[in-house]
Amino acid sequence: MKLKALKKSFIIMLSIATLMVMSMAPSFADNVTKMTSTADGTNAVVYLLKTVEMPSGTTFPGETYTFHFDTQSTGTPTDTTIADETVTISSQLASATTANTTLSAAKNVLDGISFKSEGIYEYVVTETSALKNGDTYKIVDNSYGPKETKQSDKYLMTVYSAKTSDGSKCYAKEVTVQKWNDSKSSYDFKLDASSSTESAFVFTDGFSHANVNGTTEAGLAADAEAGISESNVAFKLSCKVGDNGGFDPAKVKSGFTYDVTLGKALNGADKYYGIICTYYSGDKKYYKVSGAKPIEFTAGGDAKEVTLKDGQCLIFESVTIGANYKTSAEAVSHWQHILTQITRNPKYEYKMASSDAAATFSLMSTEDPTVSTNTSGTVGDTLASQALTINEIANTVEYTEAYTSTDVTGVVTDNLPVIVMILPVIAALALFVLRKRRSEYDDEGREG
């Protein structure tokens, strides 16, 4: 009896030990998102996807991005390294008909990799592309220009290496990818990286507005007090009264009202701030008019009314490239709006600011900056600008207000002062002729 009981206990212990050994074999749980090999000896497909989000109408110059695979000592074994991988996105024009365009390129990171042993390998994957300055691309020539943000995400790629059925080599049988969570200080997102177009193993760059003073009320007010240079003006709406404005001095004194709408751009600010200024040609700067305060505009919100007098401008230092804009002038009896829009659709190229490979560089436009569109409105009617996209520089809407209308009687009101002066002369002449004729009649009557 004791021998049977001992044998039974031994069988139970052996079974438990076998289960424990099996549970320790390299493998992933079924509920974990994983990429699996489709054939014996062929590595599982794992795509790293690099994307760049561009504002509409801009041209991406093309760049090669580099990614580093750091072998982790927590893996067993650690005898297979993965060399830096590169992903290239070619030069191309982002769509001019949508709010933004995502450009992308993918790489199967395990293609051609030979694993030396069975076991679980771990790699931390980060972007290490050159031409970076800290965590951002920076613009050195234009304070409101685009800023391309470097993706600082990191991923943990875990590879289960197994032998082929004939035992001739090892290959990546299963792979998982997890994303680092800063708030938890751990990798907790298990991602699907099996698609070259929808991979969750992705590093994304995006263009956004630069962090300049003009992005805040206080900063814009201070700049406008000290003077805003022409090169720092992101968007300008100006008013100029024509030579005949003196015929309606009351309107010239009160100013002209314009509706201004600014859109929401890719990675852009939720609010913009403008301020009413006048231009001083001596130092080529814009200074705020007396008592002017920053005006807040909601990106993508309703139009806001702004009143400008002769020679005044609504100035923005910071409007995200890719945001659209539209303006409209009020209808005023006897006044005609003449509109000039100046803009461009730039192409960007990289320019280093120093010989240091990690130094700042700029995206400079290679296009002619002065593309003008002129439109004359109907007398006494409104006039709206085209809905255009904010580009790198020269985003200007200029309204010239001309008093050139004709009133309902057909009298040209531009000549009214002259007519008023002539009328008394005509009346006096008519009275003289009438009196002379009457005198002649009286003399004829006396002679008769």
Structure described in brief:
With 448 residues, this protein is an alpha+beta fold. Helices cover 16% and strands 38% of the residues.
Describe the structure.
The chain is α+β, with helices and mostly antiparallel strands. The chain folds into 3 domains: 28-209, Immunoglobulin-like, CATH 2.60.40; 213-402, Collagen-binding surface protein Cna, B-type domain (Immunoglobulin-like), CATH 2.60.40; 420-447. Helices cover 16% and strands 38% of the residues. It is built from 4 helices and 29 strands. The chain has helices at residues 2-23, 217-226, 249-254, 416-447, and strands at 35-36, 47-55, 59-60, 63-71, 85-89, 92-93, 100-108, 119-127, 146-149, 155-163, 170-181, 186-191, 202-209, 228-229, 235-241, 256-262, 271-280, 285-288, 295-298, 304-308, 312-316, 324-329, 336-343, 348-352, 361-365, 371-376, 383-384, 388-389, 396-402. Strand 24 (348-352) and strand 25 (361-365) form a beta hairpin. Residues 17-29, 130-150, 208-212, 345-368 and 407-413 have low confidence and may be disordered.
